[in-house]
Amino acid sequence: KLAAEMEADELLDLINAIYTSIDHCAECIGHVWKVEIIGDCYLALVGGPTPCDNHAYRATCLALAIVETVERIGTRVQVPIQVRIGVHTGSVVAGVVGSAMPRYLITGVDCLITSALEKDAEPNTVLISEATERE
Predict the structure, then answer these.
(1) Going along 52-114, which residue ranges are E strands?
(2) Where is each Guanylate cyclase domain found (predicted)?
(3) Predicted pLDDT of residue 48
(4) What CATH superfamily is the domain 2-134?
(5) Using CB atoms within 10 A of its CB, is residue 62 exposed (0-12), middle (13-18) or buried (19+)?
(6) Alpha-carbon torsion angle 51, 61, 119, 17, nearest 10
(7) Model pTM?
(8) What's the rounded Cα separation, in Å, for the pair 19 and 13?
């Protein structure tokens, strides 16, 4: 929707500001691996590829920080921005794939669960799985 309402350079500046702020949140939380960005989706892995204690707590803290950060940016630029986040704790298959443009890939059932949580989350909220809550 924003793409239809903003000039291309303004939209790219906004997206860059958002992703830069999310990267900063991830640095502050620690043990966050940014897997990829596709369009408006920021995929991160907490506690991998190197395991860490309290990964579920860190992931939840990161998610809440992202919601707060995105809302703050939206208020500052006077553009209504909505974010939905899913957080799940589980296992993934991970590794570098491809040769022309190699990239780090995570896949597996638990990735699908995370994606479903994100889709079911209300705007500007974090939806966590029971597995994450138990951690």
Answers:
(1) 84-87, 93-97, 103-107
(2) 1-118
(3) 79
(4) Nucleotide cyclase, GGDEF domain (3.30.70.1230)
(5) buried
(6) -100
(7) 0.90
(8) 10
